[in-house]
Design brief:
The structure holds two protein chains of two kinds. Chain A is α+β, with helices and mostly antiparallel strands. Chain A folds into three domains: 386 residues, no CATH class; 140 residues, Immunoglobulin-like, CATH 2.60.40.740; 56 residues, no CATH class. Chain A contains eleven helices and 31 strands. In chain A, strands 1, 2, 3, 4, 5, 6, 9, 10, 11, 13, 15 and 16 form a twelve-stranded mixed sheet that branches. Chain A has a five-stranded antiparallel sheet with strand order 18-19-25-21-22, with no helix packed on it. In chain A, strands 23-24-20-27-28 form a five-stranded antiparallel sheet, with no helix packed on it. In chain A, strand 21 and strand 22 form a beta hairpin. Chain B is α/β, with parallel strands linked by helices. Chain B has three domains: 339 residues, Zn peptidases (Aminopeptidase), CATH 3.40.630.10; 36 residues, no CATH class; 253 residues, no CATH class. Chain B contains 22 helices and eleven strands. In chain B, helix 14 packs antiparallel against helix 21 and helix 20 packs across helix 21. The two termini of chain B are 27 Å apart. Classes of the chains: A alpha+beta, B alpha/beta. Chains A and B meet through strand 18, strand 19, strand 25, strand 29 and helix 11 of A and helix 10 and helix 11 of B. Chain A: One of its GO terms (cellular component) is GPI-anchor transamidase complex. Chain A: Keywords: Membrane, Signal, Transmembrane, Transmembrane helix.
């Protein structure tokens, strides 16, 4: 499993030195599970900088007690790969990094990608912000570096490959792009490999290619599949990407039976490029793949409960793994974090005593546990503790109107914080809702907004049977206020082939995305926001990119279900069409017989039909006409 | 002569069809089909309902605690109505929150004005509603359970009696505790306080206000205070009514919604199937028993009651509010004795569970049906035949006249003129007598020559008259709706004067139309009619001719045939009542036109004959005058004011102005057809009938004067 590779860009000059160095490092690291290789890369001025090729794996888990006897568990597995990615042959040798994803990155030109599968809804007002927010269904965000084959075929390849990889219908994001769009401001790359990252929010992210020394803007493709149901078949390929799978380490807890019997289940995979070494201006980015899984369990009726007001939960019971926990042997670090939420009266007690404890977390280092001496973690907290304050930004959307002809979408964004906040609202609405953009109303605290009050406003109409209409608005919402957005639409009568199976259920609309830029200076210690971890970079093991001044927090509105005029797909419909055809045939021939004038070709006289049916018809008409 | 024979033939046919249409209803109950579940996903009763005695005890506990609270509130003189309502609502909210279900109070302004008390001290009504979020769902679909209470009703529950609040809260508690494994749709509980409602109102404003707000886009700025959580698309609603008035032996399923709209038959089937499973299917009943009607067979009685409820357009329970939002809904009603409470709770939980299984909306089964019993139905394909038979006399008549009218204009004929001429040429060889005989035969076979006497001017005349009447109808329909405030005031004012004022109002209207407007139009269309009659006595034609009949009856035909799809029962009753009127009015006018024909035919005869004819016509007209007088009286008695007075006095037992304001309000709330029918259809119709009678009267009088 240990593969030593040597990368040389200029042969001859320092061949010997490199091979010696390689040998030494190999020997040194033979016992270690991370694999490091030294290599050199040339810069333009013919200097050689050495870098180490490393692949490492970290596993972490965060447990956070939530009110009403619920608990949030967030698993995060990150695999890092440090190598020379300008060399195509890099993508031929894999160790810890999953090969299927590595291939995809190389082939499609992924600069960054996030794929999230979600089931259930996150209650923002009750639980605060999740570490990775997601809409219902599947969400795919990809920053693509334009290749020669064209961005559309890259996107096609990406969606088709992913749907094959994860057993989901992502190919519809390309084939039926009702929910595929490219927002301009709501999404920013999470990694740091690209330039213009830290600059203004409205500039297009771009990367600088070293060999061509040119700057190429990145293309964003954003798609959601609100109807996709998430199940074990998606989890299994996801687990396969982990070095230890579900055999050891935190992965042991990934018991599908228990993972789907929850209030909220969100499984994601993020691929990004980060700068691990800050000195050489991101010449050598590190490829990172973060697999995370968030579940919200209802533990109030768990079998461990004795006290009515307390919730007591043993991790191994919760996931039905009686063996206890120990570290994955391939992992560099393996830790369990229990969030203390010290300001709240949670009365949280954990057994056994944590390895380390700081103000935010009680940390268990699984490296100190082994298969002989595993960790049996038991937590207990007060069932009905209250959060310290309202969640600053909460958003809800709902459908308005009734009937099958027209309707509307209304969204409310509530700022319950003292401070004003910068908000970007984005919603992609499929073409089969014909939006009337003149009905777009936006008001904050009943004060109607006009175009000039927006920081940014972008509206694009839909293309029939193709792209959705998109609305993207940036504005500042004052403290303690409500912004409300509403727009009306007509419902389109679709072709009968365009209806999904179970047509009478209706159509799922994707969630709206609200991106709030929370100024860290405004986070008051002890407020509800300070209790939340709402970034994937919460742990010490993920490499934070240059700290923004403001942290974007994403809030998704509820998924919506809309009924469009639906033809009756039942037997009745068939009967009507069939009888309609028969009648048309019958009457057509009847009228033909009766109306057609036959003429004698020789005399030119009219020929009067002697057929009984013609006689009857004549008699009826005579009765009516009176002739 | 031939004409009249044909008319007799047609009228006999019409009468028999009309009667057979009415009689056909008698055969519906015995020939009704067994109901069946179309939607397989419902799977009623496939899972065991775990609602047991423990939960049943909770019903009583909740009911009695709540009843005592209300009793205390009502005996505290310092509290006014709105205060009581708020305290009671807050109690429910608090108890639901204690159970663990997030609940809210929805405040809505009461815009309803009472007739006697005009002080509107900006009262707020209160609804309590809570959303039980299904753990495994996306929150896009939901089911509503609704009920109501009256915080001003100080009656204390007796031992073991239950209230709908207790029942609903216990069901919610059960669903919250046991349902988390299977719930896939959000359950919305909606309890509204009916304290601010008058007794005449059968349904709750609170529920209407809530459902309006739920689908509204007006976004409340006072978010924190009035947070209005939504639960996606509401797919079905079950309303629960617990009241003393229901018989304790029965469980009532009341499906008739606003304007007779019905829920999907599968919803009723589900409850029925569950009842069978609980072996209480014989207890299920569709309507309240009326002991005075026991001579009618049971199923027929139920059918008649069902149709009457549908025809009235007023929902039989609070579920009627949901119909207009395309939500299948039904009311389940029981008495407040504890006897059936456990069974009903089990039925309801079972129904919720079945609905929860649905992948799609309820769509598989029927929306148009009549129910002679909870387990039998008559489908639209069958009952529409009856309506067709009932309106067929008028249809035949109108069609017949339409065809005759077509001869006024040169219409393209598909017949070969040549062939008829060839027939005549070929018959030249036949002796004259024989020829006449053949012609006679042809006439006999075809029913004689059908020729209209209407000139295009007549058609235009009758068309404009009908338009005028229809315009009056539209005014009568829209004016009270646009000026609802002043109408209310006017009705209040008039009701103080008494019923007579209604007649005065209508007399003025009729006099205005018949003495002022119509003569003007007559003069416009027939400027030398008077002259003509004075010169040649026998140019006597009833104005407008048969075209008038056609045009005046087209609106009612169109209304009945189209609206029968919306509210079959109303249209059936309306047609049973109005079709004879319309058809009969035709015979009346027809008698006159036959006289005219006689006059016309004798115009070329000798003077003696003419005088004889005049004499006979004088005697005829004397007789006709009496006839017309009687007819006028009958039709005036059957005109809108008459109908309003009868209905208000004998059916609704109210003052006639209160009745008018009730039907206007009902139209507002339930969009039922009574008000549009009376104003848009019946008022113009009665005007044109009166016109056709009196029109001919004036002319025959003219003739007499000569």
């Amino acid at each position: 499993m240990m593969i030593t590779t040597t990368r040389e860009t200029r042969k001859g000059k320092s061949k010997l030195a490199i091979s010696i160095a390689t040998l030494i490092t190999c020997l040194l690291l033979l016992s270690s599970f991370t694999q490091t290789t030294s290599a050199t890369i040339s810069t333009e001025d013919d200097d050689y900088i050495t870098f180490t090729e490393t692949q490492s794996f970290n596993e972490e888990m965060i447990i956070k007690p939530l009110p009403k006897g619920k608990s949030m568990m967030h698993f995060q597995f990150s695999t890092e790969w440090n190598s020379n990615f300008f060399d195509q042959s890099t993508f031929q040798h894999y160790d810890l990094f999953p090969r299927s994803i590595g291939d995809l990155i190389n082939r499609v030109g992924i600069e960054e990608m996030t794929l999230v599968f979600t089931k259930g809804r996150w209650s923002y007002s009750e639980w605060g912000y999740p570490i990775r927010a997601s809409p219902v269904g599947v969400e795919l965000t990809a920053w693509l570096r334009p290749l020669e084959k064209g961005i559309d075929s890259q996107w096609r390849e990406l969606t088709h490959s992913l749907s094959g990889l994860f057993c989901a219908s992502m190919q519809f994001l390309y084939q039926v792009p009702h929910h595929t769009s490219s927002p301009s401001r709501s999404f920013r790359p999470e990694g740091t490999s690209n330039i213009y990252h830290t600059m203004e929010r409205d500039t297009v992210p771009a990367i600088e290619l070293r060999n061509q020394s040119s700057v190429i803007p990145l293309e964003l493709r954003y798609g959601i599949l609100p109807r996709e149901s998430v199940c074990t078949e998606n989890l299994t390929p996801w687990v396969k990407l982990l070095p230890c799978r579900e055999q050891s380490g935190i992965g042991q807890l990934l018991n599908p039976l228990k993972l789907y019997d929850v209030h909220y289940h969100s499984m994601s995979i993020t691929v990004r490029k980060i700068c691990k070494s800050s000195n050489n201006d991101c010449l050598i980015p590190t490829l990172e793949i973060i697999q995370s899984l968030t579940v919200v369990n209802d533990v109030s009726n768990s079998i461990d409960n004795i006290d009515k007001n307390k919730v007591k939960v043993a991790l191994e019971n919760l996931f039905e793994k009686s063996t206890g926990l120990y570290s994955c042997p391939l992992a560099t670090s393996s830790k369990i974090y229990v969030q203390n939420q010290e300001n709240l009266n949670t009365q949280l007690t954990v057994t056994p005593t944590p390895t380390t404890k700081n103000t935010r977390f009680s940390i268990y280092d699984l490296k100190q546990y082994s298969i002989q001496n595993p960790l049996f973690l038991t937590l207990s907290w007060l069932k009905n503790f209250a959060r310290s304050g309202p969640t600053p930004i909460v958003a809800h959307s709902h459908l308005t109107g009734y009937g099958q002809e027209r309707g509307g979408i209304a969204t409310q964004i509530v700022n319950q914080d003292q401070h004003p906040m910068n908000i970007t609202y984005y919603h992609a609405i499929p073409w089969y809702l014909r939006l009337y953009f003149h009905t777009l109303r936006f008001s904050i605290q009943d004060k109607e907004y006009s175009d000039k009050d927006f920081i940014f406003k972008y509206i694009s109409p839909a293309e029939t049977r193709s792209s959705p209409s998109t609305i993207e608005l940036s504005f500042e919402i004052p403290g303690n206020s409500v912004a409300s957005i509403s727009i009306d639409f007509d419902k389109v009568f679709l072709h009968y082939t365009e209806h999904p199976p179970d047509a009478n259920r209706g159509f799922d609309l994707g969630s709206g995305v609200i991106t709030a830029y929370i100024d860290p200076n405004n986070i008051v210690p002890g407020s509800s926001l300070s209790q939340d971890t709402f970034d994937i970079e919460w742990s010490e093991n993920t490499y934070p990119h240059q700290k923004h001044q403001v942290t974007p927090v994403r809030i998704y509105t509820e998924g919506l279900l809309i009924t469009l005029p639906t033809p009756d797909f039942s037997m009745l419909y068939n009967v009507i069409t069939l009888t309609g055809t028969v009648f048309a045939l019958f009457f057509g021939s009847m009228i033909n017989i009766l109306i057609r004038r036959f003429k004698n070709t020789f005399t030119g006289d009219d020929f009067v039909s002697d057929r009984p049916i013609a006689k009857i018809y004549r008699r009826i008409m005579k009765f009516i006409d009176g002739k | 002569m031939k004409d009249s024979r044909r008319i007799v033939l047609l009228s006999f046919l019409g009468l028999s069809l009309y009667l057979s249409g009415i009689i056909s209803f008698y055969y519906y109950p015995e020939n009704a089909h067994q109901t069946y579940l179309s939607e397989n996903a419902l799977m009623p009763g496939s899972a065991r309902v775990t609602f047991d005695y423990q939960d049943f005890n909770k019903i009583q506990e909740f009911s009695h605690t709540f009843s005592k609270l209300i009793w205390r509130l009502n005996h505290n003189s310092t509290l006014d109505k709105s205060k009581r309502s708020i305290i009671a609502s807050e109690w429910i909210q608090k108890s639901l929150n204690e159970i663990g279900i997030e609940s809210f109070i929805h405040k809505y302004p009461i815009t309803y004005r009472n007739n006697n008390s005009s002080n509107s001290n900006n009262n707020n009504g209160n609804n309590i509603y809570s959303v039980l979020r299904a753990p495994h769902s996306d929150g896009t679909e939901s089911i509503i359970l609704s009920g109501s209470f009256n915080s001003s009703n100080s009656k204390l529950l007796e031992d073991e009696e239950i209230s709908s609040v207790g029942l609903l809260m216990s069901i919610m508690r059960h669903l919250y505790q046991k349902g988390r494994n299977w719930l896939a749709k959000d359950i919305v509980l909606l309890i509204s306080d009916t304290c601010s409602q008058s007794d005449t109102d059968s349904s709750s404003h609170g529920i209407r206000a809530w459902i309006d707000d739920y689908h509204d886009s007006t976004l409340l700025s006072s978010f924190q205070r009035n947070y209005f959580p939504r639960a996606g698309q509401i797919q079905a609603a079950i309303n629960i009514d617990v009241d003393k008035k229901y018989s304790p032996e029965k469980i009532f399923i009341l499906p008739e919604g606003s304007n007779g709209q019905l829920p999907n038959l599968d919803l009723i089937n589900t409850i029925g199937r569950l009842a069978k499973r609980e072996s209480v299917s014989d207890k299920i009943s569709l309507s309240l028993d009326d002991p005075s009607l026991h001579f009618i067979p049971n199923n027929l009685r139920t059918l008649a009651k069902f149709m009457l409820n549908q025809a009235s357009g007023v929902p039989t329970g609070d579920h009627g509010m949901f119909n207009s939002y395309h939500i299948d809904s039904v009311t389940v009603a029981i008495s407040n004795t504890p006897k059936s409470a456990l069974i009903v709770s089990r039925l309801l939980v079972g129904t919720v569970r079945s609905l929860n299984n649905l992948l799609e909306r309820l769509h598989q089964s029927f929306y148009y049906y009549l129910l002679p019993s909870p387990f039998h139905y008559v489908s639209i394909g069958e009952y529409m035949i009856s309506l067709g038979l009932i309106i067929s006399p008028l249809v035949i008549r109108v069609l017949y006249l339409l065809f005759t009218l077509s001869s006024t204009f040169k219409s393209p004929t598909i017949f070969n003129k040549k062939s008829s001429s060839s027939l005549s040429t070929s018959s030249t060889s036949i002796p004259q007598e024989k020829k006449r005989g053949i012609q006679k035969l042809i006439v006999l076979l075809t029913g004689g020559e059908m020729k209209s006497d209407d000139s295009p001017r007549d058609i235009l005349y009758s068309f404009s008259i009908v338009c005028l009447f229809q315009l009056i109808g539209i005014l009568a329909f829209s004016l009270p709706l646009t000026f609802s405030q002043s109408t209310q005031y006017l009705l209040n004012y008039l009701s103080n004067i008494g019923t007579l004022s209604l007649f005065i109002l209508f007399t003025l209207l009729y006099l205005g139309i018949f003495l002022i407007i119509l003569p003007i139009i007559d003069r416009l269309f027939y400027p030398n009619a008077l002259k003509a009659t004075s010169e040649q006595s026998l140019v006597l034609k009833y104005k407008g001719g048969s075209s008038f009949f056609v045009f005046s009856n087209l609106p009612i035909l169109i209304f009945l045939s189209t609206m029968s799809l919306l509210n079959f029962s109303f249209c059936t009753f309306a047609s049973i009542f109005s079709i004879p009127l319309c058809t009969f009015s035709f015979y009346q006018t027809n008698i006159i036109s036959t006289i005219d024909h006689n006059g016309n035919s004798t115009s070329s005869s000798t003077l003696q004959q003419q005088q004889q004819q005049q004499k006979s016509s004088i005697s005829n007209s004397n007789l006709n005058r009496v006839k017309r007088l009687i007819l006028n009286v009958i039709y005036i008695l059957l005109s809108p004011p008459g109908v309003i007075v009868y209905m208000s006095h004998f059916v609704f037992k109210q003052d006639c102005f209160a009745f008018i304001s009730t039907i206007i309000q009902q139209y507002h709330h339930y969009s039922n057809l009574m008000y549009p029918f009376l104003t848009l259809i019946y008022l113009p119709l009665s005007l044109s009938i009166l016109k056709s009678i009196n029109n001919s009267t004036t002319f025959s009088l003219k003739q007499k004067n000569q």
